[in-house]
Write a structure and sequence with these properties.
The complex is a heterodimer. Chain A is mostly helical. Chain A folds into two domains: 1-38; 39-79. Chain A is built from four helices and no strands. In chain A, helix 2 (42-52) runs antiparallel to helix 4 (62-76). The longest helix of chain A is centred in the first third of the chain and has 36 residues, at 2-37. Chain B has two domains: 1-34; 43-333, 6 Propeller (Neuraminidase). Chain B has a four-stranded antiparallel sheet, with no helix packed on it. In chain B, a hairpin with a 5-residue loop joins strand 12 and strand 13. Mean pLDDT of chain B is 88; it is low at 23-39. The chains are: A mainly alpha, B mainly beta. At the A-B interface, helix 2 and helix 4 of A face loops of B.
Chain lengths: 79, 335
């Protein structure tokens, strides 16, 4: 009886350990995916901020300069 | 009875062979096509590092953007984070620094692209429609006023520069400007003008004046003759359309296909792939002057640009812009 209880406890321990491994693996994968995508959309966000900036908003050529910045960002920061 | 068995056996063998035959008929053309593709691309390029400028310790460079080397083997670099133009000797030792943050003569607000002629160095500003011109001792000489900010630039002579500019009109043209900023020649190309930035290109010219374009947001590399005739057009990645996104009131492309284009002294064309390449921002495609894909090689680290000097040394970025690497390109033929 006691031996059976020990076996059950051991198997539970094994299940728990496997569960933790899966949790850790999931966390690692999630974090690494997040790191890969951390840059994604950075240039688009910067472009929105530039277009809405009162300084560039006031000038006719403002969007053109924002586009230049976007191109540079795409070349330098992303990719 | 025996005849029936023989017939079954015959059918089984025949059907089996037929299946094998059919599979082979399907597979062989693919194998041979692969072989043909392989035999086409026989050139192999490997890189040997010969010089490294800048590290986290020495602070020689903070975020370099443009690089050029002159006939005296000096290396010039624009440093965006240091608002400076820097001159290094052939050993990588900092010889001189010029610039500083500001909008006065010889100062920078956002120094970017760099190229040189026999006498001068030409530096673009991101937020100003101007090219700042310095002599080789980094003394500011004059400015070339332009109508729009520069997307890419190639210096052809002391008083002639080719620029791809960004305009709201989307003219899809490379402008050849003199030192006063007057357009002396204009070469129109077939850009997609559906949305903003789709006609942005990286450019280079060969000794005969032929123009090579790598589209930043389209899978297209093109060669134009001096007279403006399109000589060839290539797409290397098989991408039909890049993703676009509405940002504020504009629709902009979100995937950069090709980042930069450079030529070596032999007329070969080197194109740096962007985020859609197999090794993003590291794959470099090599094309012959007639547009034949010769080889693809991979940079050790991602880069925003490539530059090839007169001695065919390749310069690229490392450590996200803190380091400039110079490589010898070793060409070999694959058996």
């Amino acid at each position: 009886m006691r031996r059976n209880q020990m076996k059950v406890r051991d198997s539970r321990k094994g299940t728990n350990a496997k569960g933790w491994i899966f949790v850790i693996l999931f966390c690692v994968l999630f974090c690494s995916l997040f790191a890969v995508n951390a840059h994604a959309g950075e240039c688009e966000n910067a472009l929105v901020r530039c277009i809405n900036d009162p300084y560039w908003h006031a000038t006719l050529a403002g969007p053109v300069y924002c586009a230049t910045g976007y191109l540079f960002c795409k070349k330098y920061v992303e990719g | 009875m025996i005849g029936d068995r023989m017939r079954v056996l015959w059918e089984a063998v025949f059907c089996g062979n037929f299946l094998i035959f059919a599979v082979m008929m399907l597979v062989v053309p693919f194998l041979s096509a692969g072989g043909a593709r392989h035999s086409k691309q026989t050139l192999k390029i490997s890189l040997e590092e010969v010089l490294s400028i800048g590290s986290l310790e020495d602070g020689a460079l903070f975020q370099w953007v443009g690089v050029v080397s002159d006939s005296q083997k000096f290396i010039y670099v624009t440093d965006a984070m240091d608002y400076a133009l820097k001159k290094f000797d052939s050993e990588g030792k900092l010889v001189k620094r010029a610039g500083g943050k500001g909008q006065g003569p010889g100062e920078f607000s956002a120094p970017r692209l760099l190229d040189c002629s026999e006498k001068y160095l030409f530096v673009t500003e991101q937020y100003m429609p101007v090219i700042k011109v310095f002599d080789k001792d980094l003394r500011h000489r004059f400015d070339i006023p332009l109508r729009a900010p520069v997307g890419d630039m190639k210096v052809l002579a002391d008083d002639l520069v080719a620029v791809a500019v960004l305009t709201a009109r989307r003219t899809s043209a490379v402008l050849f400007c003199n030192r006063k900023g007057e357009v002396v020649r204009k070469l129109e190309f077939s850009g997609d003008v559906e949305s903003v930035l789709m006609d942005m290109v990286s450019l280079d010219l060969d000794a005969q004046g032929n123009l090579y374009l790598a589209y930043n947001f389209a899978d297209r590399i093109e060669k134009y003759s001096r007279s403006g005739k399109r000589m060839w057009s290539r797409n290397l990645l098989g991408i039909k359309k890049v993703e676009r996104k509405k940002v504020s009131s504009f629709v902009v492309p979100t995937e950069i296909v090709y980042k930069d284009i450079a030529m070596d002294g032999s007329g070969n064309v080197y194109v740096l792939g962007g985020e859609l390449s197999k090794k993003r921002s590291r794959d470099v495609y090599v094309l012959s002057p007639d547009g034949k894909h010769l080889a693809t090689f991979t940079l050790p680290e991602s880069s925003h640009c490539i530059y090839i000097d007169a001695d065919k040394f390749l310069y690229t970025r490392a450590n996200e812009g803190i380091t400039l690497k110079k490589y010898r390109m070793v060409l070999s033929r694959e058996k």
